[in-house]
Amino acid sequence: MKISQEAVTDALVIKSYGDGFLLIQAPNQIPQQITHDCVLSPEGVFDALDLQTLAEQSSGSQIEIIKSFNADVVIMVNNEGITPNILQITGNLAQHGIALETMSLGAACRTYNLLLNEGRKPIVLIYFYN
Questions:
Q1: Using an 8 Å Cβ cutoff, are 86 and 102 in contact?
Q2: pLDDT top residue among 108 and 81
Q3: pLDDT of residue 3
Q4: pLDDT value at residue 58
Q5: Are strands 38-41 and 44-47 parallel, antiparallel or unpaired?
Q6: What contacts 84, CB < 8 A, 6 or more positions away?
Q7: DSSP state at residue 95
Q8: Distance between CA 69 and CA 84 in Å, rounded?
């Protein structure tokens, strides 16, 4: 699916997405295709967080990394629905005042761009094959 941006922003936006890829672009830069698990923020693409560690630990470096983004909204790509693992991750993050929204890749991409256009700061935890 192709996504078009309506507002001018200096953030990294999602231009399109499909099965197993994202096409992102920063202003005055060439588009970049992402095909690996990662964390996408308006400032850049970062290494993916370990889901098992997020589920098992209610504190630690993984949660501190999420907190360091100072995000308004944390979105996680999840095509499996609500699983015990997702519930545990959501609970662990909630203990630190971090709300987690889980959704499909398409919904996450559209929501991310919409939030950027509203002047908010989202991050997306992207797992293509979770």
A1: yes
A2: 108
A3: 59
A4: 81
A5: antiparallel
A6: none
A7: T
A8: 26
Give the number of other CB atoms < 10 A from CB of residue 69.
17
In angstroms, rounded to a whole number, what is the distance separating the alpha carbons of residues 24 and 31?
6
Residue 62 to residues 27, 34, 86, Cα–Cα distance (Å): 29, 22, 15
Q: Are 112 and 38 in contact (CB under 8 A)?
A: no
The answer to whether the Cα torsion of 112, 37, 24, 4 is positive or negative is negative
Residue 128's pLDDT is what? 85
pLDDT at 70 over 90: yes
Give, in order, the Cα–Cα distances in Å from 104 to each of 57, 95, 108.
Answer: 24, 24, 6
* Token couple for 82: 């609500």
pLDDT for residue 126: 94
